[in-house]
Amino acid sequence: MPRTPIDRLQPGVFISLTAIGWLRHPFMFNEFRIATDKQIQALKALGLKEIDWDPARSTAEPLPAAAPVAADEEDFGALALSGMLDDKKHRIARVRQRREQFARREREYEKDAMAAGEILKGIAGRPNELHAQARSLVGRVVGTLIGAENDIIQLVNSKAKDAGLAFHAMNVMFLSLMLGKAMQLEEEELKALGLGAMLHDVGKGDVPARILRASERTAPEEEFYRAHVGYGIKAVAGVRELPTAVKNVIACHHEHFDGSGFPNRLAGEKIPRLARLVALANRYDNLCNPFDIRQAKTPAEAIAHLFKHEAARYQPEALQLFVKTLGVFPPGSFVALSNGAIGLVIEVDSRDLLRPTVMLHDADIPRNEAILLDLRDTDLKIASAISPASLPIEIVEYLAPRGRVDYYVEGTN
Fold first, then answer.
1. Highest-confidence range of 23-32, 39-48, 80-89, 238-247, by mean pLDDT?
2. CA dihedral 307, 309, 313, 316 (to 10 degrees)
3. Could you say which DSSP state residue 138 is in?
4. Per residue in 114-137, pLDDT tens?
């Protein structure tokens, strides 16, 4: 790249600070197009005399000569630099806070999943005791859901190998509750929804693992698999005062709005209301987190698949609100931006589904200080969603919220 004196810069010149290093300047990126005079003042305050610039990516050339500065003109460069450095420190602190918050959520999630696993295994033998524990767990989740949605969606979308039925039950419960909140269900109905979602697959304990894990089944195997619905009703038969709505979730979570589901081929409004929501959440999680993780769809692929290929199976209002809740690119989605950068979606805003907040990969920036970029504040766009299996492992490790690779990445299994 050619170099130009700092005092010849103007808005529109594309510059590179790569030689300086990200930690030694206040800007979000090492390379960017100058947009304001404040940025030029901050560059001058760094003490730089010359800087690299890229004519091909510039919309303006450096000035032919430095404009004379009056002797009594006040220099605001130091003030501009100080303000930008403060902004950068705030961004770094936010990244650390986000990672710490996510770690806490994950610990809580795993603890609740262990409790859910014990409930699913033992409820047939200790129905009323474990029913009380299940209601307590669901009540706690309903009470803490608000404000945690983005972290929870990201946890659901963090693919772990062989997570098991307990994590599936938790994923479906959280997704169903978020959809229920979007549909403005009352608290008691939300609790019934959460309990039904947790217990929806309780009958799978009576189905051989070989059949559950099979990507293709013979007709007799498929019949055995579908029997988990009936086994589930049998498993909760001893629970006193189990709401009918909860039983109906277990019985009808594979029914489809177009009448193509099982076991009774119910259609439309004949499908119990809460079962319609759990059916949608269940399908999304199965697309993102199948038994064979190599077949997993990215969150964005799962959303697109539901809309393009299976929309007729689900209540239209529920499907629309589900996408609005999760986003077109849900948290946990790896994405490529229009400038070629790779990032991980960490927050969505239902008012602007195409411009979420993204954590960017940059090998020159320490992982704990990664850039958080709200796409509403830039002219960048998401070009595409990316499967983590197609990315270099170091990028996935950098962006993965846990700091370790739980995603299926080529060559790691």
1. 238-247
2. 20
3. H
4. 999 999 999 999 999 999 999 999
Residues 6+ apart with CB under 8 A from 138: 173, 191, 194, 195, 198
| Cα distances (Å, whole numbers) of residue 136 to 127, 129, 133, 182, 342 | 14, 11, 5, 22, 41
Mean pLDDT, the chain, rounded, equals: 87
Specify whether 115 is located in the same domain as 153: yes
Q: How far apart are the first and last CA of the chain?
A: 42
SS3 string, 226-288, reads HCHHHHHHHHCCCCCCCCHHHHHHHHHCCCCCCCCCCCCCCCHHHCCHHHHHHHHHHHHHHHH
Integer Cα distance of 231 and 213 in angstroms = 18
Q: Which of 75, 95, 116 is the last residue of a domain?
A: 75
- Mean pLDDT over 263-281 rounds to 97
Residue 59 reports pLDDT greater than 50: yes
Residues in the chain, how many? 413
Regarding whether 9 and 135 lie in a shared domain, the answer is no
pLDDT at 254: 98
Domain around 108: 104-327
DSSP state of 52: E
Of residues 205 and 85, more confidence is placed in 205
In a domain, 278, yes or no: yes
Q: Which of 90, 7, 129 is nearest to 369 (CA)?
A: 90
158 backbone dihedrals φ, ψ, rounded to 5°: -85, 100
Q: 70 by DSSP, 3-state: which?
A: coil
Token reading at 161: 């190998």
Dig out the tokens for 90 from the structure.
């705030």
CA 109, chain centre distance (Å): 15
Q: Are residues 12 and 141 in the same domain?
A: no
Q: How many angstroms separate the CA atoms of 118 and 112, rounded?
A: 10
End residue of a domain, out of 279, 301, 327: 327
CA 313 to chain centre: 24
Q: CA angle at residue 389 from 384 to 393, to 5 degrees?
A: 105
Find how far residue 375's CA is from the centre of its chain: 16
Q: Which of 23-32, 199-208, 339-348, 397-406 has the highest mean pLDDT?
A: 199-208
CATH number of domain containing 239: 1.10.3210.10
Residues 51 and 17 sit within 8 Å (Cβ to Cβ):
yes
In a domain, 277, yes or no: yes
